[in-house]
Design a protein that fits this description.
The chain is of the alpha/beta class. Helices cover about 25% and strands about 35% of the residues. It has helices spanning about 45-50, 85-90, 105-110, 125-135, 155-170, 205-210, 215-220, and strands spanning about 5-15, 15-30, 30-35, 60-65, 70, 145, 175-180, 190-195, 200-205, 225-230, 230-240, 240-245. Helix 2 packs parallel to helix 4 (about 125-135) and helix 3 packs across helix 4 (about 125-135). The radius of gyration is 18 Å and the shape is globular.
């Protein structure tokens, strides 16, 4: 049995008043989690609470002392005009660590081995997103959190990032993928955390258990459907004959 990395018990999250309550969740080493919900569902608030950035309003959060975290923020939260080279952006993400391998290894892992000297502001949107992944990987994390990593990037970058995440998980890295698009959570994602503060919905656990929960049908109506998009089977929620992210 894998060791628990994070444990939430009876947790309430929010800023001053509860957004979601009674959250109990265990994340174990080597698992791949899709943290899904519409905008405003509480995804970022929950992650901040899980990682210790926010204190829970109620309940307890336990974290393993052996965690080394890598975090990939939303690209919209990163200043496009940073006067830094790609290499410097990666280096700045690990100033608190020593004995790391060369930055070039992380750049090569994400397909950017030749852009180290280029200015961040000169990179394309897809290159910037891959660079932020390299920045997180340079830390040699055993837990990688990705916040909407495919927002605003081209199709090639989307597929490259999904392939990389699949490889990292196969190597033992625990992944937490935050997204508001159900179709971004592929079949390789074994665990779901489905959040919706407006519905007071918080379902976490193994993929099949969450996706077939009757609570989802009660919350949204309709049901899950597999949809073929550009040769790839993705999940969608079918409601009144239309397909939606939720």
């Amino acid at each position: 049995m894998a060791d628990p990395l994070y444990e939430m018990e009876g947790v309430a999250i929010g800023y001053g008043h509860p957004l979601l309550e009674n959250i109990s969740l265990t994340i174990k080493a080597g698992e791949y989690w899709g943290i899904f919900g519409p905008n405003g569902a509480g995804k970022t608030t929950l992650i901040k609470t899980l990682l210790g950035v926010l204190r829970p309003i109620a309940g307890s959060v336990r974290r393993s002392p052996g965690i080394r975290l890598g975090y990939v923020p939303q690209l919209t939260a990163v200043r496009e005009s940073m006067p830094l080279s790609a290499r410097q952006v990666v280096e700045l993400g690990a100033l608190d660590l020593k004995g790391l391998p060369p930055v070039s290894e992380a750049l090569e892992r994400v397909g950017l081995k030749d852009v180290g000297r280029q200015r961040f502001s000169d990179l394309s949107g897809g290159q910037r997103q891959r660079l932020m992944v390299a920045r997180a990987l340079h830390r040699r994390p055993n837990v990688l959190v990705l916040d909407e990593p495919t927002n605003g990037v081209d199709l090639i970058t989307r597929h490259a990032l999904r392939d990389l995440m699949r490889e990292l998980n196969a190597e033992g890295v625990t992944l937490l993928l935050i997204t508001h698009l159900l179709g971004e959570i592929g079949p390789e994602v074994g665990h779901f955390l489905w959040l919706d503060a407006r519905q007071q919905l918080c379902l976490g656990g193994e993929r099949a258990t969450v996706l077939h929960s009757p609570d989802l049908a009660r919350a949204y109506g309709g049901g899950l459907k597999a949809v073929d998009v550009e040769g790839e089977t993705i999940l969608a929620w079918e409601c009144r004959g239309e397909e939606h992210g939720v």
